[in-house]
Amino acid sequence: MDMASIEFVTLDVADITAANRFYTAAFGLDTQLRLRASEAPTSGFRGFTLALTVSQPANVDSLINAALEAGATTLKPATKSLWGYGGVVQAPDGAIWKVATSAKKDTGPASKQIDEFVVLLGVADVAASKKFYVDQGLAVGKSFGRMYVEFASSPVKLALYKRRALAKDLGVSPEGTGSHRLTIGGGAFTDPDGFAWETASLAATP
């Protein structure tokens, strides 16, 4: 497997039919997101967020409003900040989603077009996890010391953030135990923080 290529992520959900209905209505995600039935125990923060990057604030609102109408709950309402505009919601299956843009003004009609799909892992030691992933063959795209690392992977982008800082950014407590209920498609290993990777041949079907 080419480690520059992360094809999809798989979420463990209790009810595949309900989760599929939600994600189709909310985000229209297709190949990058897969679902698998699982009752794996988990409690509190699962240590990651799935982030959708879009081109303008109106698109943030379109996606967040669609998610809320489909059954998501608000963790952080969409607001302006120094870096742009964004908000955070929690899907009915418990996964946390962030929708954001670096743009501060709209430049066209609102749409639900997603420019980038990012899996952002909250890790104990960014430098150690960065080295682990570089050793696996991923190339670093951006790096901000021991706080944040973004890899040059596609079609799903991988990024690392300190777990406590990520939880704060999402508006949740950093405490959590049990399964991450997330598997990343692009290899066959488990990283230092317990996030599992699988090859495409082992993956659940969309």
Automatic annotation (TrEMBL):
InterPro entries: Glyas_Bleomycin-R_OHBP_Dase (IPR029068)
Keyword set includes Lyase: yes
Molecular function GO terms recorded: lyase activity
Protein's name according to its UniProt entry: Putative lactoylglutathione lyase
Keywords, alphabetical: Lyase
Originating organism: Kribbella antiqua
Signal peptide feature range: none
The keyword tRNA processing belongs to this UniProt entry's keyword annotation: no
Gene3D superfamilies: 2,3-Dihydroxybiphenyl 1,2-Dioxygenase, domain 1
